[in-house]
Amino acid sequence: MKYPETRKGDVVDDYSAVRIADPYRWLEDLDSPEVAAWVAAQNAVTFAHLATLPLRDHLKHRLTELWDYSRTSLPVVENGRLFYSKNTGLQRQSPIYVRTGVFDPPSLVIDPNLLSPDGSISLAQYAPSPDARLIAYAIAEGGADWETLRVRTVATGEDLGDSVAWVRFSDLSWTHDSKGFFYSRYPESPAGKVLEAALSNQAIYYHRVGTPQSEDVPIYQRRDHPSWIVNAAVSEDGRYVFIRTFRGADNNNQLHVINLGNAAQPSITAPIEPIVETLDAEFTPIGNLQTRVYLRSDKDAPNRRIIAIDLENTNPGAWKVVVPEQRHAIENAALIGGRIVIHSLVDVQSRIQVFSLDGALEGDIPLPGVGAVSALNGRSDHYDAWFTFSSPLSPATVYRYDLDTRSRMAFEPPLPPIDPSQFETRAMFATSKDGTRVPFFLTSRKGVPLDGRNPTILYGYGGFSISVLPFYRSDVPAWLELGGVFVTVNMRGGAEYGEEWHKAGYLEKKQNVFDDFIAVAEHLVKERYTSPDRLGIMGGSNGGLLVGAVMEQRPELFATALPAVGVMDMLRYDKFTGGKLWATEYGSSSDPKQFAFLIKYSPLHNVRAGECYPATLVTTADHDDRVVPSHSFKFIAALQAAQACDRPALIRVETRGSHAYRPTDRLIAEKADQWAFAAAHLGVARLP
Question: Are residues 424 and 474 in contact, defined by beta-carbon separation less than 8 angstroms?
């Protein structure tokens, strides 16, 4: 395959006497005409190849069918009203609705499909006011992390004149007089560098509805640590503002509080008082009853526990453990109906338990089956616990569980787009290089033959204390119907087994993540589920880094690789947007000791000339301002120059898309291309 010519520069960096060439540094200049021309040329080659794939049209058609079912989000309840999003199936974005009660008809509040004709402006988040009369919502160009806030009247559907810009990594939380809200923003970015400039000096502000942003009240900022994140959330009773401060993209945080006094007449400039000022553990408020605040914390408890702190005496000696650390890690918790509701993981499968406020176990909330809970919420003044449940073979469904009557009902349940009876999911384990037991979930047709010929895709993430649960994915059934096997791997670096599992896969221990992933691949080959010429790997963001590192460490083990929006340059990732926040997870090349382990696995720097790498399709987007696309640009340039066999090395650059956003039609098109590429290079040339 003839690739576009990629110019090599002469840039060389010095890392404590170690000199590292960076010939593709010019691809970091995302606004340059030369980079734009290079992207266009790369896309032309890629789309020409994709057009030749025999199953591409079939997969696009089938994925369109599989996406065409209703999808409903977990409701947010304010003043007795339910706010939620619902997509009828193929809408580019999901409109927001409101109901006056669970059984009342819905009314449309916001239709984000009207924001732009092509779906390129996304609805990023929303928050109804406590009196349910107003709704603040965020829009983002290309789905980027930068947001602009607007305010709409719920009854009329008309926007007010409010416009709040430069919002990013922000909570959105109203005071209970419904006159304004807290949010977090950055200073305006340099012209022409909005999507790539490094971030600093985030601050919390209070915006009063009907006033210009220039009059917003500054609340809190850490000028002594300009890269830190600061967020504010008002308590359910409207009396307190809890401020959480993070130094990085981990869960460890400081905790401060503002006593607003009378919720109906809040004093937003009241003093800020410290609760926890260390940064060695997580302290996440899950609710309060008057001055008693309940928190999820991993302080001295890697699997997390629930503690209570009285705001009138925040001395650590007065803290009370309400629900002690248990064998299974707590994934989420909420204060609902005067009880503590906890979602925990048992070998990566969900369980929900209910505890009294003194920590006594009252029982379990029965789940619809074996699978995963992706969201849990409720109010302390109401008995409804809401959660979303799915499994690899059943789409996400919202459930309402009454804690008093112990009854469960589905809310706006979808009609399943597949017949799951012909497939099955098995929970399995492999043994990693150091003897660690690594869980994974394998989904396939029933009775899959163990002949080593099944086309198989492994998916993983492995980082930032994020659990990869056995969820439903709308695209996977199309792969299963082709005779494919889909595997999700739960490597170290996630939170599936608590903070110790996370710490066993970060900083200098990152190689454990790659070893875990490779161990599952080797297990599948050994047990004859598949073979190297039928085995592919897939992952996005930190999972894209995973794919890049693993395909280089074991190129002979995989036939295809699909790294999406990956962190590929581990020496310079912290030079762009919010990259400095990831140093708590990865380390930084500016530290000689951390440089020593980063250089060993950085995908960009471990491409070896003369090696035969898997057929590779890199995907990224031009508005990705979280993992800037130059990571993918530089990586594919190096891979194209090094590839020593006829397996293609291609990049697909989505326009007007971002790190995690595509409108539905473009998402389907991208997924169809990924699966068609995987099928073609794993030996699936026709329908079964």
Answer: no
Bridge partners of 418?
Answer: none
Instruction: State the amino acid at position 34 in one-letter form.
Output: E
pTM of structure: 0.98
Q: Angle CA(190)–CA(191)–CA(192) in degrees, nearest 5?
A: 110
- Among 666, 485, 668, smallest CA distance to 61 is for 668
pLDDT one-digit tens code per residue, 367-415: 999 999 999 999 999 999 999 999 999 999 999 999 999 999 999 999 9
Considering only CA atoms, which of 573, 543, 566 is closest in space to residue 22?
573
Residue with tokens 């926007």: 159
- Which residue matches tokens 């979280």? 626
Compute the distance between CA of residue 57 and CA of residue 46 in angstroms, rounded to an integer: 16
Per residue in 581-601, pLDDT tens?
999 999 999 999 999 999 999
Output the CA torsion sign for 383, 388, 390, 395: positive
Gap between the Cα atoms of 240 and 363, Å rounded: 31
CB 675, CB 479: distance < 8 Å: yes
d(CA 514, CA 303): 23
The residues that are catalytic are 541, 659
Contact 633, 38 (CB under 8 A): yes
Answer whether 566's CB lies under 8 Å from 583's CB: no
Per-residue burial over 645-680, b = 16 or more CB atoms within 10 Å of its CB, e = otherwise:
eebbbbbbbbebbbbebbbbbbbbbbbbbbbbbbbb
